[in-house]
Amino acid sequence: MANFEKILIANRGEIALRIHRACREMGIATVAVHSTADADAMHVRLADESVCIGPPQSSQSYLNKAALLTAATITGADAVHPGVGFLAENATFAEMVREHGLTFIGPEPEHIALMGDKIEARKTADKLGLPLVPGSDGAIDSEATAKRMAEEIGFPLLVKAAAGGGGRGMKVARRPDELEEALRLASSEAAAAFGDDSIYMERYLGQPRHIEVQILSDGRGNVIHLGERDCSLQRRHQKILEEAPSPALNSEERARLLGLCVDAVRKLGYRSAGTFEFLYENGEFYFIEMNTRLQVEHPISEAITGIDLVREQIKVASGAPLALSQDEITFSGHAIECRINAEDPRTFVPSPGLVSDYHPAGGLGVRVDSGLYAGYRVPPFYDSLVAKVIVDGSSRNECLMRLRRALEEMVIDGISTTLPLHRLLIGEPDFLNGDYDIHWLESWLATHA
Ligand code: MV4
């Protein structure tokens, strides 16, 4: 097990900072990469070294595999951390990193590719013993097959793209006469968006919650879970606020879900951090996807376990066995993350520009992950997430008290942000009662905007 001396962080913004912090604590040097638009970004300032990898457009910088590999090679990095987004779930990139004699901090390319194909992921999850939404076995090859399968599955149905995920290329068919059009639209949207028109079907669940399980594995049979996260509060497939544990589960349901996931990961022989996504409705869990990367909302799992997920992810990537066992992990209290985006809080139109003043919240139980500083100019080219406010407490109530106080303290001036939205949201009775599904936020916005 070679310990890394230098890691190239193939990302930007708060997540690049997050990874830098883990490396720094481990005594590992960091290489930041940046586009010309990010020369003044905090992730560049903090890193030991930095390399400009191209012009502002992501396609020519943060997604430019050759530029990233060149940067890693010339700086003598021995590993690459892809962060979240960009190339984090690109099996080809993971393979190229390996071919360059470097370590990709993530799973094997084969596992990334397997889970990237949602039809294969479904088949795999089934073999691993995870509960599935009733649906088609494999891809739909003809309209006749689709009609026959639809009879068995029952309506309403959801047609999904194999190459999809994150909600793209999905079409609902509420009745048999809507099936033909849903198939056609999903397939042509998938072809246009992903260059792959393969589709499959599932029964459409009307009011589920989105619950995901964080796992960590060394690929040698040592597997732990870090509990679940409830990510039901979302708008157009963008998560807005996440909490751990889920307010919807009782301890029996939780234990069953977490146990299933640990068994599945062990059977899969997966190495790295990963997340199983489920829909939860009427006391039942249904696997939908597996994410083979670190996730934006990982800090709430860190908050309730005290484990540095990025550090552990780096350690298992270097070949070290997982030093933690499940019974050494104690879950305590409750954590909530609010994603602060540089967007108008009513219209969600991006609001890049100069941050004239910045004051992060602080105090007991409050963590702010952000690359912002007063005088920073938020560039218009990238994801609008600019800060994550992560709060924990010994109970959900204490967490909420602190969150209210933290959001009041936080100042981001000069640009519009979604801070005012969060201040409103956490006063809503349904939210306070933990009584929400994946559609709740959008209907609340429709009546409160
Ligand atoms: C579903 C579903 C209802 N029934 N599958 C959206 C993104 C992708 N990860 C899966 N998604 C969904 N799959 C069945 N069979 C509803 C959604 C869905 C959703 C899921 C999680 C979080 C937010 C969502 C918002 C709309 C739809």
Protein model, in words:
An eight-stranded antiparallel sheet has the order 13-12-9-10-11-14-19-17, with helices on both faces. A five-stranded parallel sheet has the order 3-2-1-4-5. It has 449 residues and is an alpha+beta fold. The protein has three domains: 6-105, Rossmann fold (3-Layer(aba) Sandwich); 134-203, Dna Ligase, domain 1; 209-448, D-amino Acid Aminotransferase, Chain A, domain 1. A hairpin with a 2-residue loop joins β12 and β13 (284-291). It has helices spanning 13-26, 42-46, 65-75, 91-99, 109-116, 118-127, 143-153, 179-194, 251-268, 298-305, 309-317, 396-409, 419-425, 429-432, 440-448, and strands at 6-9, 29-35, 49-54, 79-81, 103-104, 157-161, 171-173, 199-203, 209-218, 223-235, 238-244, 271-281, 284-291, 334-341, 353-354, 357-359, 366-370, 377-378, 385-393, 411-413. It is globular. It binds ligand MV4. The site of ligand MV4 has 16 residues, from β8 and β13.
